[in-house]
Amino acid sequence: MFPATKINREGLPFVGGAFLTALGAWRLGRKRLALAASATGLFLAYFFRDPYRRPPEDPSFILAPADGRVIEITRAYEENFLKDYVFKVSIFMTVFDVHVNRAPVAGRVLSYIHRPGCFLAANKPKASQVNERAYLLLERDDGQRILTVQVAGLLARRIVRWVREGQSLEAGERFGMIRFGSRLDVYFPTRAQILVREKERVRAGKTPIAYLPIRD
């Protein structure tokens, strides 16, 4: 579809189903249905695209875990896992963004917990607390912990997870996705230097959002 891009396996049943419907409709002479199903299949193939990404080599970078637009940068108290005042960067994904989520740093998965909730619009501040979400807590080799929260949105009805607790991830490695339209919140220590601004567009596994020097 695009150079160095594939369709993620999560989308294959959706894409295949749409094109099979289109094929059946053509054979039955239902051209409008066939065209609509074909257009749906093309959109789903676009939505589930999974481009190749090469992350920056500096391990001190905290990378964007999602494609999208930065909608919030703030200092907040994270009460569930980090239990401290930290920086929070929120990234909003529309249905037109790549939805594959990637590890912001290299580290070991200390926790990956799913919590049910509502389905408010993901760009609302309250969504971080009440929407369906999944918490991914990573610990770097130097002991620094970074928390990424997948937050389901108004249209998103499923958070997909591909990793387990105790697993080691490389920076930029795929760990899950959300269908269809959502946000990701990233929490990290305040000694980090923020490298992005609100309204800036970022790419998962590619764009550094902060710099947190490796501790000796």
Describe this structure as you would to a colleague.
By secondary structure, the protein is α+β, with helices and mostly antiparallel strands. It folds into two domains: 5-51; 61-211, Glucose Permease (Domain IIA). Helix content is 17%, strand content 39%. The chain contains three helices and 16 strands. It has helices at residues 12-27, 31-47, 127-130, and strands at 5-7, 49-51, 61-63, 68-78, 84-93, 100-102, 107-115, 133-139, 145-152, 158-161, 168-169, 174-179, 182-189, 193-194, 201-202, 208-211. Strands 11-7-8-9-13-5-4-15 form an eight-stranded antiparallel beta sheet. The longest helix is centred in the N-terminal third of the chain and has 17 residues, at 31-47. The N and C termini lie far apart (44 Å). The mean pLDDT is 86. Pathway: Phospholipid metabolism; phosphatidylethanolamine biosynthesis; phosphatidylethanolamine from CDP-diacylglycerol: step 2/2. InterPro entries: PS_Dcarbxylase, PSD-A. Its EC number is 4.1.1.65. The active site is at residue 182. Belongs to the phosphatidylserine decarboxylase family. PSD-A subfamily.
Quickly list its features.
alpha+beta; three-stranded antiparallel β-sheet; eight-stranded antiparallel β-sheet
Instruction: Give unreliable regions as ranges.
Output: none
Distance between termini? 44 Å
Which outline best applies?
A: elongated
At the fourth CATH level, what is the homologous superfamily of the largest domain? Glucose Permease (Domain IIA)
- Rounded to the nearest angstrom, the radius of gyration is 18 Å
Q: Care to count the β-strands?
A: 16
Pfam families: PS_Dcarbxylase
Cofactor: pyruvate
Catalytic activity: a 1,2-diacyl-sn-glycero-3-phospho-L-serine + H(+) = a 1,2-diacyl-sn-glycero-3-phosphoethanolamine + CO2
Family: Belongs to the phosphatidylserine decarboxylase family. PSD-A subfamily.
